[in-house]
Amino acid sequence: MPDPRDTPAMRQFTRFKQRHPDCILLFRIGDFYETFDDDAVTCHKALGLTLTQRTEGIPMAGVPHHQLENYLRRLIQQGYRVAVCDQVQDAKEAKGIVERAVTRVITPGTRVEDSLLDESAASRLAALAPADLRDPTRLGLAAVEVSTGAFTVFETSAAALADALAARGIDELIFPEQPGLAGKLPPALARAAEVHGISCTPRPAWHFRPAEALEAVRQQFGVATVAGFGLRDDELAVCAAGAIIRYLLETQTPTEDSAGATGVPSSARPCTGTPARQRPTLAHLLPPRREEDGAVCILDGVSLRALEVERTIRTPHGRTAAGAADGSLVGLFLSSPGGCRTPMGKRLLREWLCRPSLRLDEVRSRHARVALLVEDRRTAKALAEALDGVQDVARIGGRIALRRATPRDLVALGRSLARVETLAAVIHSAPAFAVSLRALESVREQLAPVARRILDACIDSPPQHLREGGLFRDGFDAALDEARLLQRDAASWLAAYQQRLSAEHKLPGLKVGFNKVFGYYIELPAAQARQAPGALTRKQTLKNAERYTTPELEEFQEKVTTAESRAVERERLLFDGLCDEAGAVLPAIAAFAQCVAELDTLACFAERALRRRWVRPEMTDEPVLSITAGRHPVLEEVLGDRFVPNDVQLGGARQRDSETATEGESGAAGGSSPDSLSRCLAASLALITGPNMAGKSTFIRQTALIVLLAHAGSFVPAEAATIGLTDRIFTRVGADDALHAGQSTFMVEMTETATILNSATARSLVILDEIGRGTSTLDGLSLAWAIAEHLVGPESRPPAGETGAPQGPRTLFATHYHELTELEDRLPGRIRNLHVSVREWGEQIVFLHRILPGRTDRSYGVHVAKLAGIPAPVVARAREVLASLAVHHSVGQASRPAGSPGAAAAIPPPSPAGNGQLGLFTEFLPHPAVDRLREIKLDTLSPIQAFDTLRGLKQLLDEP
Ligand code: ADP
Ligand code: MG
After folding, report:
1. 276 CB-near residues (< 8 Å, 6+ apart)
2. Which residue from 108, 158, 650, 876 has the least number of CB within 10 angstroms?
3. Exposure of 602 by Cβ count < 10 A (0-12 exposed, 13-18 middle, 19+ buried)?
4. Which atom of ligand 1 is nearest to the CA of 692?
5. How far apart are CA 240 and CA 126, in angstroms?
6. DSSP H or E run through 375
7. Which residue's alpha carbon is at the smallest distance from atom 19 of ligand 1?
8. List of residues 6+ apart from 426 with CB closer than 8 A
9. Measuring CA to CA, how many Å separate 899 from each of 420, 666, 817, 821, 902?
């Protein structure tokens, strides 16, 4: 039996597959893109394609060619890499097997087509250059947005890698292959990539070597050294940048495939795609720019998720679709009315919200511009109108360089660039926008003529593909007009010819027609066929008719068809010319795009501020936080006036003490610190207690969101806010919070908390929600206690705000451990109790959602049960049990009235060394050795095993 793989097509396939072993190879056969072997099985599973067999033993699955983009998107979204192998020769011209070439390699980090991308989110490719993968303490990284050319470098540590990748929207990471690692990242780094679904691609180690990498960067940018970009020639990040350039050259400008594998010249492109004479370039890559340390307020991945910045906790993976009001913060700004109007604005908005600025002047300048648009409605309205028609010029610029632009891209570019004048005119008289105005004026000279050329040349509603023809206006190009005229005249010429022939030969039934397969023909009904004059040459016999041709008709046909291809060819040439013109001003296009993005995002901030009466926050350098009548930005959109605003004051001198005035309003036990100092100084840690569903989580998250929004440059949902610059916002939610169910474990909770305790500074904001609840009550309480103490610093330290005293991070700590409220008495002035008020209303409990000073009523659980209709004897019994449990938990505590100062006297103060006295709680913790002892089955142990077990037990005991 012949080998089923030994056919020309399969041999060709195998050759391409060998060149792209890590890709799914989509192999064009006729109207389908086919996959074979393992690829076919993968596609069957990933895309639900029907699995067939090409021949016995070769699995095959295919997609119709017109559905390619759709399937590509789904494959890439699932993290696969795809190589598209096209026919680069007209099948009719092929002698033997048709020539093919890999025309695109698409990976998650190198997408440039709109159909494969989300317009509201950047997709980036990053490269990782460690000095040594096995000891990756210092990592140099480069990140590029292939679709727009934005290119940055930065350094990070292995520990911070996951967050660094998450905050930048990295979809793919390339790293050097190293011996012994089998093309994989070391486990610690691989995990960092995995949590965010980043696909990892090994690359040859030499791409990352300093000399070779530097050479790649030099060549790309035509420089002798990278010093001009503010980089050092020998730094790790440059190694990463060089590796990225090589990777892009390979995937975005694949050429050697067609030449090497099939002997087709390297310029060959698919016959239906871009024209042969233009090679893709990376001309849109901007020089790598270093991301300064300390330029942004850091939100790690966990905080971004907990605060629902990009997506709600319930949304499992991937980003939200553009414009979706999905309950996330980004979604809030993207949704209309008043949402961002341009794709560039949408992406910058996301960037600013995920990486808010830490530069006081920049933040204040953004606020000033928002303020201007809030006040000057005429300018705001004109700006909105000017922005409305601007399309994704940043990505179109990228596609122009990569030669993937379509006729629609070109026209969109022309229309958008034409707005440069309008935009400049709109902000002309607004001093706050001087920087943007200068930027627009500096590119206007370059962009306006390009825009005019494009719009003069192209029709208003261009075809999707160049091959369809008809992009250019009549009268724009003489050669094109001539070719078109011939085609258009064909109809009248044929009519005249038909008339002439039938008159000449007296054949009234004679018709002249056209069909795709046979071309032009003269047709006679079968009845008149015998009278056909000798001048007609028979061409085809049908059932009821005969078809003929003449030399004259043949000549006409030749002229028309060449005119057609001449027209297409001419349009390509003109199209390339316009693309080249646009390609020559790519940096100006990028600058324009950046300008539009900023204007759009600021306009969007202004709309939101107006819509919900947000205010301009006052930014300061002091580590303070003071918010009057703050609201949750997303919940207030849902609840409107029903949302209850709340104040917060952390760190620094307290300006007023209005909260105390409202005290006693609730049924809960109030009581602020007796220490008079705390009346004029705000504590740095606020402890919030209150029943379930009272609004604790909402309150602490809204505070974090307000701080985040302020740094992003937005106004904030409050009546007034003074916000000290915040270097990091940490948000952690206790492991078994219902919102987090199934996603987290206690171990994760503690790891995350460890990060906070180790890295929070006096300028950080820490939001802790029910920390410690992922373990037993005693464990959790003890940990929560110690964590709170640690966050405000050692007891010996003077209270926060006192002159010269270092302060702990501003912290909001929501907890159901009401025992923690004792901390306020022990650390007066540094920890402040707040609670959420609740009111009984007949048989109902009413959540007032008001945050008030003081501690909560500790028996609310049983209390709520009573209100909920639990039978009275059960409630009474629960109270009894509660009381006796309290005795067990903390000897001596239950004998005092609940909530009285000094009730926590049973808890020893932390010892200076931080070990030794574990306190009374520990008596009730079962030791693991006891558990182990219980498990041992004595009668199955050999003497040796018995000894080993004993030694194991001893070791368990000796462990700290
Ligand atoms: P907790 O964390 O105390 O259990 P949440 O913060 O989760 O409570 O709030 C529970 C619900 O109460 C929220 O889903 C929201 O609908 C409502 N809520 C919370 N805070 C407010 C508020 N300030 N104004 C109005 N409704 C609120
Ligand atoms: Mg909660």
Report:
1. 267, 268, 269
2. 876
3. buried
4. 4
5. 8
6. helix 360-375
7. 695
8. 379, 382, 383, 386
9. 66, 16, 12, 8, 9
Q: What tens digit of pLDDT does each residue of 712-743 get? A: 999 999 999 999 999 999 998 876 443 444 44
Contact 698 CB / ligand 1 (< 6 Å): yes
Cα 847 to middle of ligand 1, angstroms: 8
Q: What angle do CA 775, 776, 779 make, to 5 degrees?
A: 85
Query: Residue 292: which residues within 8 A CB-CB, separation 6 or more?
Result: none
849 Cα: distance to centroid of ligand 2 (angstroms): 12
Residues (pLDDT < 50) of the chain are 256-276, 318-323, 654-680, 736-743, 800-805, 890-905, 912-924
8 A C-beta contact, residue 688 and residue 699: yes
Q: Give the position of tokens 């650390």.
A: 827
Q: Is the CB of 634 under 6 A from ligand 1?
A: no
Tokens (6 digits) for 936: 């041992």
Nearest-atom number in ligand 1 for the CA of 701 is: 6
CA distance 281 to 259: 18
- Ligand with the closest atom to the CA of 851: 1
Question: Which pLDDT tens digit goes with each residue over 636-648?
Answer: 999 999 999 999 9
Q: Can you say how many angstroms the Cα of residue 176 is from the centroid of all Cα atoms in its chain?
A: 25
In degrees, rounded to 5, the angle at the alpha carbon of residue 83 between the alpha carbons of residues 82 and 84 is 115
Q: How far is the CA of 697 from the centre of ligand 1 (A)?
A: 7
- Report the candidate in 714, 457, 685 with the shortest Cα–Cα distance to residue 577: 457
The confidence score (pLDDT) of residue 661 equals 37
Q: Is 446 left (phi over 0), alpha (psi -120 to 50) or beta?
A: alpha
Task: Kindly state if the Cβ of 673 falls inside 6 Å of ligand 1.
Answer: no
Atom of ligand 1 nearest to the CA of 694: 3
Q: Which residue has its alpha carbon closest to ligand 1 atom 18? A: 695
Nearest to 789 by CA among 696, 906, 687: 687
Query: Cβ(380)–Cβ(338) under 8 Å?
Result: no
DSSP annotation of 399 reads: H
Contact yes or no for 687/821 (Cβ under 8 A): yes
pTM: 0.82
Q: Which helix (DSSP H) or strand (DSSP E) does residue 407 occupy? A: helix 407-417
pLDDT for res 30: 87
Place of tokens 């410690």: 772
How much distance in Å is there from the Cα of 707 to the middle of ligand 2?
20
Closest approach atom of ligand 1 to CA 698: 6
| Alpha carbons 61 and 26: distance in angstroms, whole number | 10
Contact 341, 384 (CB under 8 A): yes
CB-count exposure of residue 953 (10 Å: 0-12, 13-18, 19+): middle
Residue-level length of the chain = 960
pLDDT at 859: 52
Between the CA of 701 and the centroid of ligand 2 the distance, in Å, is: 10
Q: Are 817 and 714 in contact (CB under 8 A)?
A: no
Tell whether ligand 1 has an atom less than 6 A from the beta carbon of residue 144.
no
In 658-776, where does DSSP find H-type helix?
658-661, 677-680, 696-712, 746-759
613: amino acid identity, one letter:
R
Q: How far is the CA of 769 from the centre of ligand 2 (A)?
A: 7
Confidence (pLDDT) at 588? 97
Matching residue, tokens 């990028």: 590
pLDDT for 931 equals: 77
The strand pair at 765-769 and 810-814 is best described as: parallel
Nearest CA to ligand 1 atom 25: 643
Instruction: Tell me which of 849, 850, 852 to substitute to probe ligand 1's pocket, judged by most ligand atoms within 8 Å of the beta carbon.
Output: 849
Query: Would you state the pLDDT for residue 924?
Result: 45
Q: Which residues contact 483 (CB under 8 A, 6 or more apart)?
A: 563, 564, 566, 567, 570
Three-state DSSP class for residue 272: coil
Cβ of residue 639 lying under 6 Å from some atom of ligand 1: yes
Share of the chain above pLDDT 70, in %: 84
